[in-house]
Amino acid sequence: MLSLFISTQGFLNGGSGTGTRLGYFSNYSKVQLSPVITSTTCAGADIQLTAIAGINMSADSSLSTIDGSIGLSSLEGDLDIGELSASNSVTITASNGSISNVIGDYLSDDNTTINVSAPQINLSATLDIGANDNPIVVSAGRGGEVNLASTREGFV
User: What is the torsion angle, in degrees rounded to the nearest 10, for the CA atoms of residue 126, residue 121, residue 111 and residue 21?
Assistant: First the structure.
């Protein structure tokens, strides 16, 4: 199985301004990292993104993998997530920060965009997971598993 690993000392920013759905990743000085992500879907591969200062997806950003897992990790910053979908698992870890729903379209459980879809979902943050009026919306399916760990509040 192939895997995509991207790591930076600064922020990982994903936006749609480059003509692709996820866009480009940059560090503090806006230097483009290699490899450039031109597609948001990987077939038969894991996607692992790690940053020291944080990961910021835009509201229209998505990451998905078929026959793989997704891992997002921030050592000292927040994780602002759009849509994540994996056939195996999604693990999101904010070691010293919060996990936020950047889409912000939650009206009710039946009227919202799903942030995280996978049979196994792991969300861990030292601060908050979601917000009362803007939760992290998850779908683990029948028989799926959702694990949460937060020292403060969690809204899922």
Answer: 90
116 CB-contact burial (10 Å; exposed 0-12 / middle 13-18 / buried 19+): buried
DSSP string, the chain: -EEEEEEESSEEEE-STTSSSS---B-TT-PBPSSPP--SEEESEEEEEEESSEEEE-TT-EEEEESS-EEEEESSS-EEE-EEEESSEEEEEETTS-EEESS---SBTTBS--SEESSEEEEEESS-BSBTTBPPPEE--TT-EEEEEESS-B--
Cis peptide before 35, with omega less than 30 degrees from 0?
yes
pLDDT tens profile 72-119: 988 888 999 989 999 999 999 999 999 999 999 988 888 999 999 999
Dist. CA 57–CA 39, nearest whole Å: 14
Q: What predicted TM-score, i.e. pTM, was given to this entire model?
A: 0.77
Question: CA angle, corner 105, sides to 36 and 95, nearest 5?
Answer: 55
Strands 45-51 and 70-74: parallel
Name the β-bridge partners of 66.
43
